[in-house]
Specification:
Helix 1 packs across helix 8, helix 4 (about 70-80) runs parallel beside helix 5 (about 95-105) and helix 10 (about 300-305) crosses helix 13. It is built from 13 helices and twelve strands. The protein is α/β, with parallel strands linked by helices and about 375 residues long. The radius of gyration is 21 Å and the shape is globular. The two termini are about 30 Å apart. Helix 7 links the parallel strand 5 (about 135-140) and strand 6 (about 170-175). It has a seven-stranded mixed beta sheet, sandwiched between helices. Strands 9-10-12 form a three-stranded antiparallel beta sheet. A two-stranded parallel ribbon has the order 1-11.
C-alpha cells in the first residue's frame, strides 16, 4: 500500500517511538508528583520544550505550552486574544481557525473579518491589511495551506500588520510548516501552533509557541500544569516521542525539502494532463500537490485508487465530517464547483520514495482514464 495522505497524518517514527517507550512502561509516573521519580519527569518535559522550540525560535524570546493537538493550540490562541473589536483571518484557514472565528461572532466576542485568497491559495496581503484597523485585536494567518500547499510569509505579514496596528496579537497555524519548511520565527509573530502527528509524532500531542512577554490566560482549568496555562496531566510518553521525531525530522529538513520537491514535480510530470489540472503552485510546500480531475468526482477517484493500493485525500481530513461536497479553500481560490468537485490532494512525507511516486502516477492515470470511459 502506498500512502500519500501525509498532510492528514503521518506514520509515527519507529525510532522515536522506541526511544520514548521507557516513558510509557518504566517512567510512567505523574510529573506533578513530589517523589523523585515524578519530579525527574519535569526535567524531561523541560528538555522536550527546549528541543521543540530551539528549532524555529529564540528561546530567550519564546516559550512553549504543550496541548493535545494543533486544534487546541489554535483555539487557545484565538479565544485568549480575539476579544472586543474585530479579528482578522484568511479564507484559506484550517477549520480549527475558521470555525473558531465563526464562534467569536456567535458568542458576540468579536467581529470576524475574512481576507480573500490569491489563485494559488496565498492570502491577498493587501486586502488582509485593509481589514486591519485601530479596533483589530487579533490576526491569524496560516503558514502553509493544508489543502493546496501555498506558503504565506508569516514573518513579513506579521511585520506589516504590526506596522499598521502595533497592539494586534499575531498568530499563525504552523501545523503544515513545522518540521517541513526551513524558517525561524520573527519577533513580530506572537503565537504559533504545531502538531506532533504531522511529522512522525503521535496523535494527541501538540503545542502553542508564544512570545514570552505575552500573558497567556489558562484555557483548561484544573491542577495548574504547564505553568497554569493548560491543566491536565502531561502526556510524557507522547511529548518525548514528539521530541525525538522532531530531532529526526529537523536533522534532514533542508535535504528533504529539495528531494520531496523533486518528487512532487516528478509526479506532476507523469500525470495525464488531459485528465488532471494542477492547483498547487510551484513555490508552495513540496509536501502537497493538489490537482483536479475536471468532470470527475475526486471522492470516486479516491476510492478507486484505494482499491489499487494508493491512499490519497481530497482535501482537509478534518473537514470531511462536515459533509461538504466542495472544498471551501478551493472555491476561495477562485475555482468553480466543477473544479472543486474533482480535487485530489497528494501529500508526501520525508519517507516517500521515488518508486512510490512513479507507481502513484500510474494508478492515478489508470483510475482517471477508467472513470472517464465509464462516464461517456
Amino acid at each position: 500500500m502506498i500512502y500519500l495522505d501525509n498532510a492528514a497524518t503521518t506514520k509515527p517514527s519507529e525510532s522515536a517511538f522506541a526511544r520514548a517507550t521507557a516513558f510509557a512502561m518504566d517512567k510512567y509516573y505523574n510529573p506533578s508528583a513530589l517523589y523523585a521519580e515524578g519530579y525527574a519527569l519535569q526535567g524531561e518535559l523541560k528538555k522536550a520544550r527546549s528541543a521543540l522550540l530551539c528549532k524555529i525560535a529564540d528561546e530567550a524570546s519564546f516559550e512553549l505550552v504543550f496541548t493535545s493537538c494543533g486544534t487546541e493550540a489554535d483555539n487557545h490562541a484565538i479565544f485568549s486574544f480575539a476579544k472586543r473589536g474585530n479579528a482578522v483571518t484568511t479564507a484559506g484557514e484550517h477549520s480549527a481557525v475558521l470555525s473558531a472565528f465563526a464562534e467569536l461572532k456567535n458568542r458576540g466576542i468579536a467581529e470576524p473579518r475574512i481576507a480573500p485568497l490569491e489563485k494559488d491559495g496565498r492570502v491577498n496581503v493587501e486586502k488582509l491589511l485593509a481589514l486591519v484597523d485601530e479596533k483589530t485585536t487579533f490576526v491569524s494567518v496560516m503558514q502553509v495551506n493544508n489543502e493546496v500547499g501555498a506558503i504565506n510569509d508569516i514573518n513579513k505579514i506579521a511585520k506589516l500588520v504590526k506596522a499598521k496596528n502595533p497592539r494586534v496579537i499575531f498568530h499563525s497555524d504552523g501545523v503544515q510548516g513545522y518540521g517541513k519548511i526551513p524558517f525561524r520565527l520573527a519577533k513580530e509573530v506572537d503565537l504559533y501552533s504545531v502538531s506532533a502527528h504531522k511529522i512522525g509524532g503521535l496523535k494527541g500531542v501538540g503545542a502553542l509557541i508564544k512570545r514570552k512577554s505575552l500573558v497567556l490566560p489558562p484555557y483548561i482549568i484544573g491542577g495548574g500544569q504547564e505553568s497554569g496555562r493548560r491543566s491536565g496531566t502531561e502526556n510524557v510518553f507522547g511529548i518525548k516521542q514528539f521530541e525525538y521525531a522532531t530531532e529526526e525530522k529537523f536533522s534532514t529538513i533542508r535535504e528533504d525539502f529539495e528531494r520531496i520537491r523533486a518528487y512532487r514535480e516528478l509526479l506532476w510530470s507523469l500525470l495525464d494532463k488531459e485528465i488532471f489540472t494542477r492547483l498547487s503552485g510551484e513555490d508552495g510546500t513540496p509536501y502537497i500537490l493538489s490537482v483536479s480531475a475536471l468532470g470527475l468526482r475526486g471522492e470516486t477517484l479516491l476510492h478507486m485508487a484505494n482499491d489499487k493500493g494508493l491512499i490519497i485525500g481530497t482535501g482537509s481530513a478534518c473537514s470531511s465530517n462536515a459533509k461538504r461536497r466542495y472544498s471551501k479553500v478551493v472555491l476561495a481560490c477562485g475555482y468553480d464547483e466543477k473544479t472543486a468537485d474533482g480535487v485530489l490532494r497528494l501529500s508526501f512525507s520525508h519517507k516517500t520514495t521515488e518508486e512510490e511516486v512513479k507507481r502513484s502516477a500510474e494508478i492515478l492515470n489508470e483510475v482517471g482514464q477508467d472513470l472517464r470511459r465509464r462516464m461517456k
